[in-house]
Amino acid sequence: MSNVGWRIKVGHDKYRVIFAKLFRSKEKDAAMREELFLTYVRDLYGHHDGEEREVFPAMIKVPEFRETCYELEMEHRAMKMLAVELSELGYDHKTWVYRLAPLYAIHNIHWDKEEKFLIPFSPEHFTNDQIEALGEKFDAVVARYNAMSLQDFKAEHLKPQQK
Ligand SMILES: [Fe+2]
Ligand SMILES: [Fe+2]
Description:
- The protein has helices at 4-24, 30-60, 63-89, 96-117, 128-146, 150-157.
- By secondary structure, it is mostly helical.
- Helix 1 runs antiparallel to helix 2.
- The longest helix is centred in the first third of the chain and has 31 residues, at 30-60.
- Residues 48, 51, 72, 76, 110, 114 line the site of one fe (ii) ion.
């Protein structure tokens, strides 16, 4: 099924599981943290890009969704800033796991909004065919990110922040 709302929910549920593992990780688990975190961030960047390229432009045309879309885009931006900070801190840093908390807090607010608006994906505004086609396009963007190696992804998307 390519229903765009359900494709997005599958991504969110995957991240929920990864966060549960990361929150239990310790400083000695730095290598596992790094691999799991980068795997999550690569998928997340694809997920955000898929939403911003394919889903939000369709939603923004519907006046009642417009404000929510702008909020969702700004939340993506905030999550990316926190993800970059976590990738630069050092995976064995004693505060690493605590710095996950604000990222997770934004995720929770964001997931609630998206799952409220995107899972039903408005049958009153879109046909089933449009909802399925958006799901396929969204999946294709996520797949492009996941086809990159973690090292290539890191070099291209997690460049050190300019101070
Ligand atoms: Fe999402
Ligand atoms: Fe999102």
